[in-house]
């Protein structure tokens, strides 16, 4: 049962515009959410995170929004740049009794076009 | 330099052989993880360890084994019982507490022929 879902396998955005990547989760125990960026044949790199006590966290061009009632989070990238082209994974932590367990979604491939 | 190191980057093995993938970190992290990525797929959790001498099965632990004898090391053995071992394997480490991120190694691509 997929507890963290990224329903859009791919997204294409023009350079300079906003990229919005979405993520849904089913486990209400999750209390910390993270976004990672991944290039082929490399390990994911951490981008930004958000605690469940917040609804927004911003870091430069990256902003993560959390809607707990809808069990939904999104990553906004503004402005999008060609170097942002990669696969983006959302992840969640906080299942009961397993504070460290980190569960990932299936990823969204972002392509930023010129 | 602090970081997490996986070795080797590429590994070839014959079907039926066990193989051990190395993962070492010098970040003083309590938690360590092993994930598997298949082409076009997400990251699926194989095993994770929250502290030394303790580890928990993830979502796809069958055919794999781990040990956590030292804080710095979390080797993964892919046994002959794993039906489809060819994949990209990723190790990560992070803090024990919930509100901390995990950092990944560069991965090991295992090909079983």
Portion in strands of chain B: over 45%
Mean pLDDT across the residues of chain A is: 93
- Radius of gyration of chain B, Cα only, in angstroms? 13 Å
Which outline of chain B best applies?
globular
- Assembly status: heterodimer
* Uncertain stretches of chain A: none
What does this structure look like?
- The complex is a heterodimer of chains A (114) and B (113).
- With 114 residues, chain A is an all-beta fold.
- Chain A is 0% helix and 54% strand.
- Chain A contains no helices and 11 strands.
- In chain A, the strands form 2 sheets. In chain A, strands 2, 4, 5, 9, 10 and 11 form a 6-stranded mixed β-sheet that branches. Chain A has a 5-stranded antiparallel β-sheet with strand order 1-3-8-7-6, with no helix packed on it.
- In chain A, a hairpin with a 4-residue loop joins β7 and β8.
- Chain A is globular, with a radius of gyration of 14 Å.
- The mean pLDDT of chain A is 93.
- By secondary structure, chain B is mostly beta strands.
- In chain B, 0% of the residues lie in helices and 47% in strands.
- Chain B contains no helices and 11 strands.
- In chain B, a hairpin with a 7-residue loop joins β9 and β10.
- Chain B is globular and about 40 Å long.
- The model of chain B has no long low-confidence stretch (mean pLDDT 92).
- At the A-B interface, β4, β5 and β10 of A face β4, β5, β9 and β10 of B.
């Amino acid at each position: 049962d997929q507890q963290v879902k990224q329903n859009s396998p791919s997204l294409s955005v023009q350079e300079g515009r906003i990229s919005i990547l979405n993520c849904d989760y089913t486990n209400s125990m999750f209390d910390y959410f993270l976004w990672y960026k991944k290039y082929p044949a490399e390990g994911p790199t951490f981008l930004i995170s958000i605690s469940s006590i917040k609804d927004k966290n911003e870091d430069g061009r990256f902003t993560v929004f959390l809607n707990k009632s809808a069990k939904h989070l999104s990553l906004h990238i503004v402005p999008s740049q060609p170097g942002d082209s990669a696969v983006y994974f959302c992840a969640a932590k906080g299942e009961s009794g397993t504070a460290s367990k980190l569960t990932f979604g299936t990823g969204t491939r972002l392509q930023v076009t010129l | 330099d602090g970081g997490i190191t996986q070795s080797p980057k590429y590994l070839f093995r014959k079907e039926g052989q066990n193989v051990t993938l190395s993962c070492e970190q010098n970040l003083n992290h309590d938690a360590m993880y092993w994930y598997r990525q298949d082409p076009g797929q997400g990251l699926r959790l194989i095993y994770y360890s929250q502290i030394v001498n303790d580890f928990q099965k993830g979502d796809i632990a069958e055919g794999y084994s781990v040990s956590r004898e030292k804080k710095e090391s979390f080797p993964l053995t892919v046994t002959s019982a794993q039906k489809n071992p060819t994949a990209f394997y990723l190790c990560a480490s992070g803090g024990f507490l919930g509100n901390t991120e995990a950092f990944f190694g560069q991965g090991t691509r295992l090909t079983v022929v």
